[in-house]
């Protein structure tokens, strides 16, 4: 059932402290091909205004998230940095417990431009290093990923970045990067949810030891009604006295069982807790397969062959 069979998944999940409304244990980690271990569930901060981001990050850290995903293109790295600093997660042991990802703007791809951009980004994030630095889009019509990768390798050698990743890379992009650099990324972050599963990409990643990370894992809520009430029925099957399972949790659990890393977004504390509370139930094989059957032909986001996130 796992998509990423090359990874090692630590299966012990978090538990909820109902009185404090927090999740006490760390989320499971996936060990990447480079040996680093990434929490399987993180918080995405796309489309959150910079001024509003710090309290969202503070809330997420308080309820138990140890994985934050941002990008230069989101325009909220400064807010993320403020949230880390206010929570004490920008230095020391707390920083070491956190996985922090950011991404390079497409307009700043290239060797010198990437190095300069990283200096700016690390200042906004108010920390000394990031756990993963990613090429945001492959821009095959203006390919600079090989030169960018050389800059990324330098940053890794300088221990300012731990893991190198890419976003939205299709198999042809991953092939091209490998031919030119001799290296695959540790992670490929792609749009992935029940109605857009990208089996060709995930299969390629499995075969080449690349972990799959899903953005928009809930299709921004659009997949809740996929299957004509199927997800609601599955959610009811797993609800019990004192514990209600939601459609969102059913979808996120499906991702977890596939071995996918997920970064659901929420600005609300109660929803943040919900999106992390995925480890006290399991889908049956028939339920899991029924969700997999929801795959469709239409993406919700942009086409990596034509899009640039400047």
Write the layout of secondary structure elements.
Elements: E1 8-9, E2 16-17, E3 22-23, E4 29-31, E5 37-39, E6 43-44, H1 50-63, E7 67-69, H2 77-87, H3 92-96, E8 99-104, H4 111-125, E9 130-135, H5 145-157, E10 161-167, H6 171-181, E11 187-191, H7 199-207, E12 211-215, H8 230-238, H9 247-257, E13 261-262, H10 269-276, H11 285-292
Parallel strand pairs: 6-7, 7-8, 8-9, 9-10, 10-11, 11-12, 12-13
Antiparallel strand pairs: 1-4, 2-3, 4-5
Please provide a written account of the structure.
Substrate binds at residue 136. InterPro entries: AKR (IPR020471), Aldo/ket_reductase_CS (IPR018170), NAD(P)_OxRdtase_dom_sf (IPR036812), NADP_OxRdtase_dom (IPR023210). Residues 46-294 form the NADP-dependent oxidoreductase domain. This is 2,5-diketo-D-gluconic acid reductase. Helices cover 37% and strands 15% of the residues. By secondary structure, it is an alpha/beta fold. The protein has a domain at 24-220 and 258-266: TIM Barrel. Strands 6-7-8-9-10-11-12-13 form an 8-stranded parallel beta sheet. It has a 3-stranded antiparallel beta sheet with strand order 1-4-5, with no helix packed on it. The chain has a two-stranded antiparallel ribbon with strand order 2-3. The chain is globular, with a radius of gyration of 19 Å. Residues 1-21 have low confidence and may be disordered.
């Amino acid at each position: 059932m796992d998509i990423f069979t090359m990874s090692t998944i630590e299966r012990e999940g978090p538990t909820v402290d109902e009185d404090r409304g927090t999740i006490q244990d760390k989320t499971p980690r996936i060990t990447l091909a480079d040996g680093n271990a990434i929490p399987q569930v993180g918080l995405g901060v796309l489309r959150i205004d910079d001024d509003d981001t710090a309290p969202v990050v503070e809330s997420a850290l308080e309820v138990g998230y140890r994985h934050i995903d941002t990008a230069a293109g989101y325009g909220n790295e400064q807010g993320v940095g403020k949230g880390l600093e206010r929570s004490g997660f920008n230095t020391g042991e707390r920083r070491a417990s956190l996985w922090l990802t950011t991404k390079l703007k497409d307009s700043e791809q290239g060797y010198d431009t990437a190095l300069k951009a990283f200096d700016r980004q690390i200042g906004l994030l108010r920390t000394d290093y990031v756990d993963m630095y990613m090429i945001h889009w492959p821009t095959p019509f203006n390919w600079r990923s090989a030169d960018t990768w050389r800059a990324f390798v330098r940053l890794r050698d300088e221990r300012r970045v731990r893991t190198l990743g890419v976003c939205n890379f299709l198999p042809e992009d991953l092939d091209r990067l490998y031919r030119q650099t001799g290296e695959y990324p540790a992670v490929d972050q792609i749009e992935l949810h029940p109605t857009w599963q990208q089996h060709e990409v995930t299969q390629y990643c499995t075969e080449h030891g690349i972990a799959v990370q899903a953005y928009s894992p809930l299709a921004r809520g659009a997949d809740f009604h996929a299957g004509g009430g199927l997800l609601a029925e599955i959610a009811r099957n797993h609800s019990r006295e004192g514990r209600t399972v939601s459609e969102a949790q059913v979808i996120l659990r499906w991702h977890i069982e596939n071995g996918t890393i997920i970064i659901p977004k929420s600005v609300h504390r109660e929803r943040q807790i919900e999106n992390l509370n995925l480890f006290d139930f399991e889908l049956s094989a028939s339920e899991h397969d029924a969700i997999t059957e929801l795959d469709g032909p239409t993406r919700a986001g942009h086409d990596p062959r034509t899009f640039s996130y400047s």
